[in-house]
């Protein structure tokens, strides 16, 4: 499982394990399928769900950013809602909108539609896409899943929401149903990530993008226990486990206590502050403001230098603070990779 001997010492995996590295590894959240013309060419022939259902197309799109930018990791091309679609939830991914769920989940009766996810039977294309991509990659593949709160927010809201108001209302009004919902979603994420690691993924990331909308009190009471259970379950896979959420400055201590091996920070929290507030054994990932990718080169270079100046000497992976903006010039991303790779780790592998 995820133990290709040729890649076990890849910079990404060493950094996630807190080991010294020769250069800082870098990848970009949403590096596939956003700004690349070669992705748009594939999208002209197939919808997003059609790509994920085709191992050949999914593997091809997964490889595109690695070939073009020389990033230190691939991330499987899929979406956080594809396991829900695979168990029969009527989800559609609308261009320019995101996941839309025709019949939202709002009561305990609705939970019956969320049966367990059995990847081998429900989504054979998932493991096949991972195997195909890994057979052509010389960097690790990151498997991913949506975090329980973030998946719950799409299911309860019925689509993207700025406030997650309906999801939070269910959480507060009916904590028992909420807990059952989150437990089912954590089981779905665990099943999906297990299948991806068994097929060759060498690290996993849980995208709990929207947890920042919760207070620390609500996150700790209504979400953290489930996330902790998810990370406990993932530990058996033996690969580094990254946890990412947006706007989590007020949640860092809680997030750190959920048990991840690495935490992805957005641009709002300086890396050096994150280092102090997370357990020392937890690696950091982040956190260039994605908007910097749209700036002229000198500005982009200064912003990258600023992030690198705050980065710990060990246990660090460069990334953006959120996904690549779709209008990014791909050349800017390639340039960021060159800058990060050229940067000499200040403390040459000494403790952070
Ligand atoms: O690198 C990659 O792009 C890999 C593939 C990938 C990943 C990692 C996609 C393809 N989606 C995701 C994760 C994802 N999907 C997240 C977590 C990361 C994040 O916060 O950005 C979330 C919240 C989603 C949900 C989603 N799917 C949205 C956001 C909607 C909202 O609430 O604002 C959107 C727009 C999608 C559709 C989608 N997923 C992926 C692509 C390439 C697209 C656009 C599809 C299209 O327009 O055809």
Describe the structure.
This protein has a single domain (11-348), classed as Alpha-Beta Barrel (TIM Barrel). Helix 8 crosses helix 9 (165-173) and helix 9 (165-173) packs across helix 10. The protein is an alpha/beta fold and 352 residues long. The mean pLDDT is 95. The chain has helices at residues 11-16, 37-45, 48-53, 55-69, 82-86, 119-122, 124-136, 148-157, 165-173, 175-198, 216-222, 224-235, 252-256, 271-277, 297-310, 330-342; strands spanning 74-75, 91-94, 98-101, 141-146, 203-207, 241-244, 262-264, 283-288, 316-320. Strands 1-4-5-6-7-8-9 form a 7-stranded parallel β-sheet. It has a two-stranded antiparallel sheet with strand order 2-3. The protein is 45% helix and 11% strand. It has 16 helices and 9 strands. Residues 30-34, 48, 75, 77-80, 93, 95-96, 98-99, 144, 150, 160, 207, 209, 323 line the site of coproporphyrinogen I.
Helix and strand sequence: HHHHEHEEHHEHHHEHHEHEHEHEH
The distinct ligands, each listed once, are: coproporphyrinogen I
Number of domains: 1
Uncertain segments: none
Structural class: alpha/beta
**Average residue pLDDT:** 95
Summed up, the helix count is 16
* Secondary structure: number of strands: 9
Classify the helix fraction into a percent range. 40-55%
Any idea what the radius of gyration is?
A: 19 Å
The top level CATH class name: Alpha Beta
CATH architecture: Alpha-Beta Barrel
